[in-house]
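Re: your question from the hallway

Yes, I did run it. Sequences:
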Amino acid sequence: MAFNRRWLSVASIAVAAVVMMAAAPPVRSGGVNFGDDSDSNDGPSYFGFVRDGDGSPVGGARVTAAPQAGGSLVTRSNSMGIYKIPGFAKEIDPKTVGISCAKDGYTQSNVLRRGQADAKDPVEVDCTLQKQ
Amino acid sequence: MKPAYCLIAAAFFFALVGADPCRAQTLTGSVASADEGAMEGVLVSAQNEGSPITVTVVSDGAGRFRFPDGRLSPGHYALRIRATGYELDGPQSAELGGATADIAIKLRKASDLAAQLTNTEWFTSMPGTAEQKRPLIECMSCHTFARIVRSTYDADAFVPVLKRMAQYANNTTQARVQWRVAARDVNDESVRKLAAYLATVNLSRGTTWNYELQTLPRPKGRATHVVVTEYDLPRQTIAPHDVRTDRDGKVWYSDFVENFLGELDPKTGALKEYPIPVSKAAFPAGTLDLEADGNGNLWLALMFQTGLARFDMTSKTFKIFPLPGDLNDDAMQQSMVMPGSANADGEVWTNDVARQSIMRLDLKTGAYERIDPFAFLAKGHTHAPYGMAADPDNNLYFMDFGGEAIGRVDAKTLAPTIFPTPTEKSRPRRTTLDDQGRLWFTEFAANKLALFDIKAEAFREWDVPTPHTYPYDVFRDRNGELWSGGMASDHVLRFNPQSGMSVEYLLPRPTNIRRVFVDNSTHPVTFWAGNNHGAEILRLEPLD
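Structure:
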């Protein structure tokens, strides 16, 4: 079990690194301006893991990120239980962004928000879903 | 003629003149070339002198073709063919009298292969990275790649050309160029980057291209089992954008560059045009989205003329819903309208292209309200609410054509929800909602057809078989098959999402397709679209 925890921890860091790179706001076509978008006004992106009570990844979970200021963004966790969400407007304080997870047959039992070393760092929020 | 009499008459006719009176006269024949012998997948088109209607069939595996019985009336028909790499050697025309005519069509090698390439084939042929080629998907909106690859501009000379083009209205065609009144900002660095790339794929360094020209294979098998009918419109400037049929079988279209709503009688090819009042004479003309409301009336998004128009199908008159002066500035543009569920709450959805936002019209008061569904997202990213659909409660679903998401706006609270597509940089474009609550849409930049289940809030995506097709729109028919077309490939895609099987029907001419429509009342179903750059309406009838 200790091995499993250590492996999970190492895997989490590795996956987090990949997610941090992948979660960077994508460059999009700028239409007839032939240009690329700017990410200079982005707030931090979000990512996390959706797991069940045993620590196994839960894929296909509905992950909702909802700033208190209004609006929401809905995405899904992948087969490894990972989700990622691009940054919101810079003015939105990440602490005011609620993250919740749901999937048929499960109940959300815990949402763990990890600290940021720097305000620009991606925000990690992990969900635990218990089988009903 | 009753069968028994017919058989007797047939016996006499066969004996006397070798013709079968039970079958209407038609045109049949064979297609061959010196290089290939009998050729499959050659499109053979026939247009009666003076008629706006051209009918096209495709040669089969034995090189034989046959026009449907009774489709061609007696007359003098001009013939044309489409088979990449070949041109028509002869005959150039055919006489069709009271009996079936059988002709032998000969093809010779094309003298100018490059002139036959589609945008898809240029995309495939040109060297360069996906990132370098990506901006070119904007060019197809106004012209084919022929203008680019045959140009002789070097990178420096390209820069002012690109900057000038950015100031054209998006409802511009080569037949009718329209300038924006409000100037658009252009990013110098991006323009220079694109100019440098284009100068590597055009004729700035020589008299021919320094890369091999790639072509798509000719149709074969099921892709030859089709009849295509083209209806020429009377002015080259007419740019049919959205096309749909009504319950009487009449075909209606929005004109992208002129202020008319068009009504075509597909039986005769006769056209009626209903002039739409011009409210801003100095601004680009034309309309884009054409949608029906719950009462069967048609709605148009008035583009730079701004606001919305409702066309009463009984009185054949327009009611215009203008924008108030404080909203109606020089950049204002409505490209989309969604009146489909207006009977639920008396509201019609539209968009404000310049401000990347949603608008909603109150039918009782005529007032518009603006909703910014991206207000909470990071700034500096391109968004563009585009294709729209409304569920029965009039909640709005829209495509973020500038980005990579589907959006929802709640009809009661106006709260926005953003659903990013699984594929990044997908640029969802047009959509329709089926009766099972599923949004079918195209991911234009990702070259995919896609589905969003609004109940499960889950996506599915399918790659379009041919790379660089860039599907503009998709329509699900009554059999569950998807029909799609776009601005690049001159093909209509028929795709079965259950089996993954697809058929790609080549069209007779360069065809810039926007909105697609399927008439489910026919057997088999009938596909309709406009040729936005070719002043024609297109009907495609699969034979299976």
